[in-house]
Write a structure and sequence with these properties.
Number of domains: 1
Shape: globular
Low-confidence stretches: none
Structural class: alpha+beta
CATH architecture: 2-Layer Sandwich
Oligomer: single chain
Number of strands: 5
CATH class: Alpha Beta
CATH superfamily: Fe-S cluster assembly (FSCA)
Mean pLDDT: 92
Helix content: 25-40%
Number of helices: 3
Distance between the termini: 17 Å
Radius of gyration: 14 Å
CATH topology: GMP Synthetase, Chain A, domain 3
């Protein structure tokens, strides 16, 4: 399951980070990575924010740019570093997007995404 809303988090500092990550846009889709459902988990490791995330495809040509933007946004909040774990398990699919993103992109829940 992806994190698409601050209400899914209990920790106020993690909510603040997630809010900042809404400024990170996947340029190929034109939508922020939170609403796209690319954030899978958030927590803390060795007092640093840890973000488990994915890309829309393992071969995303702008993936490294997205990771750099995530790191920059977290550091702008005053954290000395961030741990970013990139995973493709489970593979991203459109059903992971926020309801708002689905509406903007015309994605319907009654259509099953193809298995990758």
């Amino acid at each position: 399951m992806s994190i698409t809303s601050e209400e899914q988090l209990q920790d106020e500092k993690l909510k603040e980070i997630l809010k900042a990550l809404r400024d990170v846009v996947d340029p190929e889709v034109g939508m922020n990575i939170v609403d796209l459902g690319l954030i899978y988990e958030m927590g803390w490791e060795n007092q640093l924010p840890k973000i488990v995330m994915t890309w829309t495809t393992p071969f995303c040509p702008v993936g490294p740019v997205i990771l750099a933007q995530v790191e920059k946004k977290v550091k702008e909040l005053g954290y000395p570093d961030v741990i970013i774990e990139l995973t493709f398990d489970p593979p991203w699919n459109p059903s992971m997007m926020s309801e708002e993103a689905k509406m903007k992109l015309g994605v319907r829940d009654d259509i099953t995404a193809p298995k990758l």
